[in-house]
Specification:
The structure holds 2 protein chains of 2 kinds. By secondary structure, chain A is an all-beta fold. Chain A has no helices and 11 strands. In chain A, 0% of the residues lie in helices and 55% in strands. In chain A, a hairpin with a 2-residue loop joins strand 6 and strand 7. By secondary structure, chain B is mostly beta strands. In chain B, the strands form 2 sheets. In chain B, strands 2, 4, 5, 6, 9, 10 and 11 form a 7-stranded mixed sheet that branches. Chain B has a 4-stranded antiparallel sheet with strand order 1-3-8-7, with no helix packed on it. The termini of chain B are far apart. The chains are: A mainly beta, B mainly beta. At the A-B interface, strand 4, strand 5, strand 9 and strand 10 of A face strand 4, strand 5, strand 9 and strand 10 of B.
């Protein structure tokens, strides 16, 4: 069973702080890595994707991938109350087509 | 910005009935997917569809389920003889084809909340 693990949280950070969300995956053949944001009762919304080891930055968001350690993280700088949501990590496997395997998500709360 | 459209937003059906969930993927996307999310649980893959045929399906996607692209824009999920445990949010997603070894991001519709009574 190919698993994607996330701490369910909630992770509470003060407004303006950096939020760090982590995800580990069991399959070394995992190929592509995605972060989605999901507000309660809503659909997953794509935030970032990363394919290669290292960092990828987009505005306030940075995705970090370490394939040797099998983890991917998402940093949110200058956290805002509107960032409060559940963040889903999703991966695809090499040879597994385009199927996304999701983690259970980490709930982030940004406090005023 | 182009988006995936799903209808209806909420469907209530008696157990044993058939339901059809509809999706209009982003127009230049070629891969289509259905996922479901039972309340409080993680998003689960059901099926992917490419070039007018199923490219992959999960163990959940048994004979009760079928997908179809009846025309150039719609993509449907049919659930026959619904059961109580089919109650969930059903999300349609679409993506561009793979680029080399890299999977293209999937964009999700707003979902259909299916309630089986």
């Amino acid at each position: 069973q190919k698993e994607v693990e996330q701490n369910s949280g909630p992770l509470s950070v003060p407004e303006g702080a950096i939020a760090s969300l982590n995800c580990t995956y069991s399959d070394r053949g995992s190929q592509s890595f995605f972060w989605y944001r999901q507000y309660s009762g809503k659909s997953p919304e794509l935030i970032m994707f990363i394919y290669s080891n290292g960092d990828k930055e987009d505005g306030r968001f940075t995705a970090q991938l370490n394939k040797a350690s099998q983890y991917v993280s998402l940093l949110i700088r200058d956290s805002q109350p509107s960032d409060s949501a559940t963040y889903l990590c999703a991966v695809t496997q090499r040879g597994g087509g385009n199927k996304l395997t999701f983690g259970t998500g980490t709930q982030l709360k940004v406090e005023l | 910005e182009p988006e995936v459209t799903q209808t209806p937003s909420h469907q209530v059906t008696q157990m044993g009935q058939e339901v059809i969930l509809r999706c209009v993927p982003i127009s230049n996307h070629l891969y289509f997917y259905w996922y479901r999310q039972i309340l409080g649980q993680k998003v689960e893959f059901l099926v992917s569809f490419y070039n007018n045929e199923i490219s992959e399906k999960s163990e959940i996607f048994d004979d009760q389920f079928s997908v179809e692209r009846p025309d150039g824009s719609n993509f449907t999920l049919k659930i026959r003889s619904t059961k109580l445990e089919d109650s969930a949010m059903y999300f349609c997603a679409s993506s561009l084809p793979l680029t080399g070894d890299s999977n293209q991001p999937q964009h999700f519709g707003d979902g259909t909340r299916l309630s089986i009574l």
